[in-house]
Design brief:
This protein is α+β, with helices and mostly antiparallel strands. The protein has seven helices and ten strands. It folds into two domains: 78 residues, Phosphorylase Kinase, domain 1 (2-Layer Sandwich); 191 residues, Transferase(Phosphotransferase) domain 1 (Transferase(Phosphotransferase), domain 1, Orthogonal Bundle). A hairpin with a 6-residue loop joins β4 and β5. α4 runs antiparallel to α6.
Length: 305
Amino acid sequence: MHGPVPQRAATPAPVLDSVQAGMQLAHQKVYDVVECIAEGGMGRIYRAYDPAMDRYVALKLLKPDMPDFVRRRFRREAVIAANFSHPNLPRVLDVGVVPGSALEWMTMEYLRGRDLGRVIERGRTIPLPLVVDIFCQTLDALEYIHTRHIVHCDIKPDNIFITRDSIDRRIVIIKLIDFGVSRNLETDERSEQIAGDPLYMAPEQTVSRGVFDQRADLYAMGMSFFESLTGRHPFQDRIDAPVEQLLRMQVDRTPDPPSSVLPPGPPRQVDAIDAFFAKATAKDPARRFADARAMRRAMRALLDA
């Protein structure tokens, strides 16, 4: 008689103990969605928990019915921001698609605080030294992206986020957010679509296929500076006008100086603030500040006027 047939031992699965160039590594990322913290026309932002890294993130979810050009902007925003390395710019951590759907998402560092627009809406008076600090940090971020040939194209108080240093809460840290309509001057073609907020848009940015450069961001900074310092938009009397009228005002209307709505102050400083605003919002880009560094230098000088 023959005994039982011996079973061949199973070959153990190979153990990967090194990687080589050309290999691909893949893993599945899990986020626990906690709450919706913001919503816009194109999507929603949620606070989510990343259990693998034990941290909260901001999860930006694009709405499913968005047209293709919006989807391209969304993906492009993620790629642009993922390559930033600057203390005044948020980091993009990951991108993906919700399984079984067309919902695209990206995760960014979670910021605790509020945007400058909300501070203004609450009617809080922001002292000049704090306004200067907020805008100088924003200009630091602009200098960084401008040297990389990127124009933000949507500078406004809502996109200037105020947070605090994690160790010393007295230190204000500014993050310039939302690069959804930004433009790379080296690679992007002129767009048929006008993108940005008509309340802050530079005149040269208000036309289809408009030719503009980094100075468009500086114009929007000037408009935002006025609003932050006074609590009123330079075109407050027409703030609810139709988009077409707002765009036309950016081209044709010269706003009143900040001193027209500010309380009385030291004459030299008031004159310096008016001159700064006039230069920042000149209709002709050639008459504005040459770059973010020059604008930051002029802004700091307001405190010594």
